[in-house]
Amino acid sequence: MAVEVNELVNLCSFAGERFDLSQAGGGNASFVRDGELWITASGWPLSDVKDASGTCRLDHAALVETMRNLKGKQSKLEKTELERVAGKAVAQCSKTPDVRPSIETLMHCLLGPFTLHTHPIAVTALLCRKSWKSVIQSLYPEAICVDYETPGVRLALALMDKLDEISEAENKVVDTGGNGSALSKKNKSKSKKVFLENHGVIISAPTVEEVIDSTNEVVAKVGEHLGLNLAHYRLTNQITSLMRTVSTESVCSYYCEDKVLLDALKSNEDLIIERPSWPDQLVYCGSAGLRLKSLGDARSIKDFIEKYQHLPKVIVVDDHLFIVDRTIKHCRRLEEVLKAHVMMLSNADMDEVQFLSNDEQQYLLNWEAEKARQRM
C-alpha cells in the first residue's frame, strides 16, 4: 500500500503546485486498493499532502452501499437532512476517525483506481458558460457531463445516475466492487473524463501517469478552444521534476507573478539572486538565487547544492521566476520575504550594502530556532 500512497502524494504534488489547476488548495485525489478508498483529507491543500497523514482511509464497499441507500432516500429527504445522513454514514465508513475525509468522498468511491478532481481555470471557464455541454461533447464525445449540483452528496448522486445510465445503455450488469467504478467492466480500464457544470473536472484512470497526462491534455485542449493559454503554469511541474533528479527532499514549485519581483528580474537580476542582507532573507530564501541555463539544467543545481549545502529556493529560467519550498503556503511566504528584500535594495548603492557574513549565514542556517520557525 505504501507504493499507492506515494503515487497519491505525487498526484497531489502535480496538481497542488499548479495555480491553473488548484486555487486556495482546492481539489481532491484518491485511490482504491484492497477494499479501501484512500482520499485526501478535508481542509488539506493538495500541496500539503506529503504522506498518509494527509489522507483518510475508508471502507470502499461500505461507501458504495451507502450511495445505493442514499439514492433510495434522496427524494424523501430535504437537502440539509440528506447531507446530515450522508455525513454520518461516511464517518461510519472511516478507518481514520481522527481525520475528516474530503467532502467529495462519495463521488470518489464511484471511480478509480486513481482519481483527481481539480478546478482548472481554462476548463471551469467553459463549464460556467451556457454552451458548455455542447462544446464538451464535441471535444470529448465519450465524456460524462454532469449538470450542476451542490458539492458533496447531491453531486455524487448525480454522478451515480450518469454512470448507471451508461451501464444500462450498454446492457451490462452494474458492478460496484473491485476498483469501485459504477461503469461496466469493459470501461473500467479506460481513463474517464467527468465534467461538472460550474465546478470542475474529474479524471479517473488505472495509473497516476494516465491521470496526469489526461488532465494536462484536457486543460490544453479546452484552453486552446477558448483561446486561453495557461501553459506557463505547467513549468512548475518541470522544475519540481528537475529537483527530484538531484534530491529526495519533498518540494513544491511556485510560478511567481508578483509585479515587483518580475520588474526587478528585468531591470536588475542581481536583486533576485543576490546573497542575503538580513536573517529572514537567508532563512526563507536561502543563501542565493540561481539562474538555470534551461529547464533541464540539473548540473547547476548540483553545483549549487555542493556550494551551499541546500537546494536553491529562488530559481530563474529565461524570463520566468520560480520559488521552491515545501508547500504552496511556504512558497508564498518566501515570496513575501524576497519581495521585501528587493524593495529594500531597489534604490540602494550596492557598494554600500552590508551583506551577512559567511560565518553568520552558516550559524543561522544551522540554528534550530530558525529551522523550527521555517517549518511552521
Brief descriptors of the model:
elongated, alpha+beta, 7-stranded mixed beta sheet, 11 strands, L-fuculose-1-phosphate Aldolase, 17 helices, 4-stranded mixed beta sheet, 376 residues
How would you characterize this protein structure?
It is a single chain. The chain has 376 residues and is α+β, with helices and mostly antiparallel strands. The chain has 2 domains: 228 residues, L-fuculose-1-phosphate Aldolase; 142 residues, 3-Layer(aba) Sandwich (L-fuculose-1-phosphate Aldolase), CATH 3.40.225.10. Helices cover 47% and strands 14% of the residues. It contains 17 helices and 11 strands. The strands form 2 sheets. It has a 7-stranded mixed β-sheet, with helices on both faces. Strands 8-11-10-9 form a 4-stranded mixed β-sheet, with helices on both faces. Strand 6 and strand 7 form a beta hairpin. Helix 2 runs antiparallel to helix 3, helix 5 crosses helix 9 and helix 13 packs antiparallel against helix 15. The longest helix has 19 residues. The chain is elongated. It starts with a helix and ends with a helix. About 4% of the residues have low confidence.
Question: What would you say about this model in short?
Answer:
By secondary structure, this protein is an alpha+beta fold. The chain contains 17 helices and 11 strands.
Low-confidence stretches: 173-181, 183-187
Q: Order of helices and strands, N to C?
A: HEEEHHHEHHEHHEEHHEHHHEHEEHHH
CATH fold title of the largest domain: L-fuculose-1-phosphate Aldolase
Mean pLDDT: 93
Beta percentage is: 5-15%
Rounded to an integer, what's the Rg over CA atoms?
23 Å
Q: Could you say which overall geometry the principal axes of the C-alpha atoms support?
A: elongated
Strand order of the largest sheet: 3-2-1-4-7-6-5
CATH superfamily of the largest domain, by name, is Class II aldolase/adducin N-terminal domain
Question: Helical content, roughly?
Answer: 40-55%
Helix count equals: 17
Top CATH class of the largest domain: Alpha Beta
Distance between the termini: 29 Å
Q: How would a textbook summarize the main sheet? A: 7 strands, mixed
Number of strands: 11
What is the CATH architecture term of the largest domain? Answer: 3-Layer(aba) Sandwich
Structural class: alpha+beta
Q: How many domains, as an integer?
A: 2
